[in-house]
């Protein structure tokens, strides 16, 4: 996919000759639990690094499946799985071939990799690094890594606020001028915002251009939309065993009558539950909501006032507005709701979806093209609503649901590249170019 190039939301690039400065280019691969995607970006450098926020633009992106975490048992194949993405970047950057050695390429893997055993994780990364070292782009081993959950959340916050025009070189970001970000992936969920008052845990210091701010960032591993499905399926199986119900075929309230759900407990489809089961959908919203709430462990001790769930400290959000993207926004769109949908609107729409039989669901929601998303819509919507309202305890009018802004994707990977550019002065300055047989900077 190619994105139209637009100017930054702020003006000026550090000196009066900024219109003549060359573009810099870079690529970042996001290794998520559900696939890998490369973003190719360009940005205008500055002669005075640190004086402004460097503003990159996505010039193209491409994706492949499965995600890098799927190669735990065959790490030697991970490089070849990423090859189409790097070939895409080479094709897109063909006109910059003379500068390929100065164009950085990064890989940041996310929660799917964080779920693996350390040896599995490192084996995959080492094979990625070995492949990247064969490329003509600029690469060092530390440029391929697993992002912490808190980093992933902050990258999403940067992307959301950058695309909404909230990051300006002449204005210090505050809780009144920024939005919080809510990211829902396949394996984890992130909440990040700038508290109105001090943060006593899970603080993330951030340096962007001339600004230094402190964010609250927390990532809930196992609370992505697919991991949550695994966790609730485990609860259903446990309940069936405790009630001496046949474990071969049991009911699941979060799926439509007529649909048979078989939990696989992996992204690659190569491993299954210790007891393989077939779960018959029962079309029961109340039962689904009660089931989903059980995985949040809201009764866990909260040692520091106040907590969200699982005993995790979360500062009071007060009136901070939030932007929910990724699967949050996908679910709201699949329900046919607007980007400013209220939480109660989501609950009403979810109750309706969860009342449908499979035949009714296939007919009334045929516009949801992906079969997996369509058949899992009751669970996805119930979990997303429960996480926002019951887990984070957000209010009805605090949230906007968007996957893009101005034609540009709201994605943590874009924020990661903004972060990298603004941390490394060498990425901020213009490249020297040959002019009449000599080097000069233009």
UniProtKB/TrEMBL annotation:
Keyword Nucleotide-binding on this protein? yes
Q: Which residues form the signal peptide?
A: none
Query: Would you say which domain of life the source belongs to?
Result: Eukaryota
Q: Where is the active site?
A: 152
Q: Which residues bind ATP?
A: 186-190
A Gene Ontology biological process term: nucleoside diphosphate catabolic process
Recorded GO CC terms: membrane
The record's annotation in InterPro entries points to: GDA1_CD39_NTPase
Which terms are listed as keywords in the entry?
ATP-binding, Hydrolase, Nucleotide-binding
| One GO MF term attached to the UniProt entry | ATP binding
State the family it belongs to: Belongs to the GDA1/CD39 NTPase family.
What is the recorded name of this protein? Ectonucleoside triphosphate diphosphohydrolase 3 (NTPDase 3) (CD39 antigen-like 3) (Ecto-AT P diphosphohydrolase 3) (Ecto-ATPDase 3) (Ecto-ATPase 3) (Ecto-apyrase 3) (HB6)
């Amino acid at each position: 996919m190619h994105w139209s190039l637009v100017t930054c939301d702020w003006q000026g690039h550090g000196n009066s000759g900024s219109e003549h400065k060359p573009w810099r280019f870079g690529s970042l691969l996001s290794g998520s639990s559900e696939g890998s995607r490369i973003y190719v970006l360009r940005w205008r450098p500055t002669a005075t690094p640190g004086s402004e926020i460097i503003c990159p633009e996505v010039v193209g992106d491409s994706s492949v499946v499965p995600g890098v975490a799927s190669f735990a048992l065959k790490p030697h194949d991970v490089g070849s799985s990423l090859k189409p993405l790097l070939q895409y970047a080479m094709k897109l950057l063909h006109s910059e071939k003379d500068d390929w050695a100065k164009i950085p390429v990064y890989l940041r893997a996310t929660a799917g990799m964080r779920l693996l055993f350390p040896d599995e994780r490192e084996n995959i990364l080492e094979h990625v690094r070995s492949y990247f070292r064969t490329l003509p782009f600029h690469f060092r081993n530390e440029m391929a890594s697993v992002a912490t959950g808190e980093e992933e959340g902050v990258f999403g916050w940067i992307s959301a606020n950058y695309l909404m025009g909230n990051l300006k070189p002449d204005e210090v970001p505050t809780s009144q001028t920024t939005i919080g970000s809510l990211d829902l992936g396949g394996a984890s969920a992130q909440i990040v915002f700038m508290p109105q008052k001090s943060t006593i845990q899970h603080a993330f210091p951030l340096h962007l251009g001339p600004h230094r701010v402190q964010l609250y960032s927390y990532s809930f591993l196992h609370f992505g939309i697919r991991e949550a499905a695994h966790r609730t399926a485990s609860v259903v199986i446990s309940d069936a065993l405790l009630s001496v119900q046949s474990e071969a075929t049991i009911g699941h309230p979060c799926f439509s009558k007529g649909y048979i759900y078989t939990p696989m407990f992996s992204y690659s489809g190569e491993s299954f539950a210790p007891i393989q089961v077939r779960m018959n959908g029962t079309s029961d919203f109340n039962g689904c909501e009660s089931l989903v709430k059980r995985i949040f462990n809201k009764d866990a001790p909260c040692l520091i006032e106040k907590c969200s769930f699982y005993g995790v400290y979360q500062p009071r959000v007060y009136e901070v507005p939030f932007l929910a993207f990724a699967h949050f926004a996908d679910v709201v769109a699949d329900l046919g709701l607007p980007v400013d949908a209220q939480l109660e609107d989501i609950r009403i729409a979810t109750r309706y979806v969860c009342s449908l039989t499979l035949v009714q669901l296939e007919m009334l929601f045929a516009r949801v093209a992906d079969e997996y998303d369509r058949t899992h819509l009751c669970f996805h919507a119930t979990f997303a609503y429960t996480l926002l309202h019951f887990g984070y305890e957000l209010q009805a009018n605090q949230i906007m649901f968007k996957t893009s802004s101005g034609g540009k994707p709201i994605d943590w990977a874009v924020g990661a590249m903004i972060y990298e550019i603004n941390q490394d002065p060498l990425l901020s300055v213009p490249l020297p170019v040959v002019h009449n047989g000599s080097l000069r900077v233009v």
